[in-house]
Amino acid sequence: MNALHPFSASPAADRVHLRLMETSDLHVHVFPYDYYSDRPIDSAGLARTAALIAALRAEAANTLLFDNGDFLQGNPMGDYIAHERGLRPGEMHPMIAAMNAVGYDAATLGNHDFNYGLDFLLTALDGARFPVVSANLLPGPLAPPGLAALPRYTLLERPVRDGAGATHRLRIGVIGFLPPPIAVWDRRHLDGRAEGGDIVAAARALVPKMRAEGADLVVALAHSGIGEPGHVARQENACLPLAGIEGIDAILSGHQHLTFPGPDFAGIAGVDAEAGTICGKPAVMPGFWGSHLGVIDLLLDRDGPGWRVAEHQSTLHPIAIRKPGCGVVPLAPSNPAVMTAAARAHAETLAYTRRAVGRTAVPLHSYFSLVTNDASVKIVADAQRWYLAEMLKGTPHEGLPLLSAAAPFKAGGHGGPDYYTDVPVGDIAIRNVADLYLYPNTVRAVRVTGAQLRGWLERSAAIFNRIEPGQPDQILLNPEAPCYDFDVIGGVEYRIDLSRPPRFGPGGRLVDPTAGRIAGLSWRGQPVSDDMEFVVATNSFRASGGGGFPGTGVESMAFEAPDANRDVLLRYIAEHGTVAPRADATWRFEALPGTTVLFDTSPAALDHLDELRDLALEPAGEGPDGFVRLRISL
């Protein structure tokens, strides 16, 4: 357990110590269990976080617990409840049951809470014994009954004790925000039914109203990260301008799956990454899957009839740490009440995910998916193209070249050295299919020009740092770029010239419109010209504009399928019986003689080095945080 905070000591008379605690991005991780690898883990699970919550509650006289959203989707238990078993009115969702057992005071919604549709979301929320607020969720004309009833904010009235033991009544205003692009990311569920409004505009309108209604303190639950310093319309990561709004006292953030305070946000103007403040106000971001508990300790002084924040401290409490030579070491036991709340669903999920649907004749893993052609990505692309080849028959798009875009979803990064897909030769179970395709997207097709296709690939190539030719051991990957934005487009061939600057930055921001890393782009041996036309199979998130890829968006949509990408993958495997996807030579790095780069991957990758044929690669020692480092000669 962590040492007691300085604020844990009894404050002076007439001073109130209030402890705010936060979880975020739980993604249905109740048990400390990885359903994909079918084994217990120590680095995730609300059951473990709950032990920290209980300990920190016991230290302080006055505590509040909040969740920052993305709790209903994200692992096979969420998919099982939503798609296999269903959730009937009045039935408790296991995630909500677990949260009730922990005792949350309030929560807000994240973008992934909409992935199964509004009806499912509202049915799940019916069981919550805590208010769920969302200030910038805007119901549309087709919104289901109940959506408009979700409060935009709430005022929690709580008795609190000061340092002398006297009791006071404190009114804590709690307001929640979700990322505005939800209507783009989940268009099939939200079109005409709901959308996300601007975070900062909603706060400017509602925070003064909360104060006027008697809020002594305003806490912002922002399912939004730390991004641009200034306000940008419909900003996804808006915590910096949000913290600048008068009347907000504390920011509980999330969405980016990072941690704050800490080095993830060092060097950003207006952010003190060591003290844990944004624009001078206390803030936390507690990782993901229950990996950390975010804590803000406040000392409140009387301010006339109300209260003001006199001192504050932001800290993170991990449920496990990684020690060199020891791996992951747990710091908290599992809370039995939380485990019991979801025990039936856990057992049913295990039975569901262990069913075999086919076999693979080749290993399907993502250890090298960011540096070479990869079978685990190829099988997803193959399934999408197989499905759409039939769906596009008889449409105006039938005669066009059909390509397929797919990206690795689990390739280390902030997920750590164990966050990789690994399906060995043999049976493919449902849990393996879910491992190959994590998200409940549906299949889409977009019609693009050759110029847009090239731009799409330029956007994918933003994951790589610029490399100086002739120099040794340069870091290959940009840590700000997530692996799921590295789309490989099967059906064409191309090279990536790392010596050239990227055209796009992470998130899709255009940084150099004249830059071009994509070389030798060809289709069936012929150069791709700007005016050629293609159909690209992809998913609903990407096709609707998620990630800011050229050629995507509603205006480019050629076909909207009713089937989920994961279901299509499952049907593809089941129909073929045994699959053996070949990692075709779709792309490669442009040769840069005398140049080496360093690439971090899982230690398990060392068992698969003999599978590489077209990459000059060798071990280069240990990387940070439990990764191994490989050297690639370009």
TrEMBL record:
GO terms for molecular function: hydrolase activity; metal ion binding; nucleotide binding. It comes from the Bacteria. InterPro entries: 5'-Nucleotdase_C, 5'-Nucleotdase_C_sf, 5_nucleotidase/apyrase, Calcineurin-like_PHP, CpdB_N, Metallo-depent_PP-like. SUPFAM superfamilies: 5'-nucleotidase (syn. UDP-sugar hydrolase), C-terminal domain, Metallo-dependent phosphatases. Residues 19-257 form the Calcineurin-like phosphoesterase domain. Keywords: Hydrolase, Metal-binding, Nucleotide-binding, Signal. GO terms for cellular component: outer membrane-bounded periplasmic space. Gene3D superfamilies: 3.60.21.10, 5'-Nucleotidase, C-terminal domain (3.90.780.10). One of its GO terms (biological process) is nucleotide catabolic process. CDD domains: MPP_CpdB_N (cd07410). The keyword Nucleotide-binding applies. Residues 375-550 form the 5'-Nucleotidase C-terminal domain. The keyword Metal-binding applies. PANTHER family: 2',3'-CYCLIC-NUCLEOTIDE 2'-PHOSPHODIESTERASE_3'-NUCLEOTIDASE, 5'-NUCLEOTIDASE-RELATED. Belongs to the 5'-nucleotidase family. This is 2',3'-cyclic-nucleotide 2'-phosphodiesterase/3'-nucleotidase. It comes from Rhodovulum visakhapatnamense.
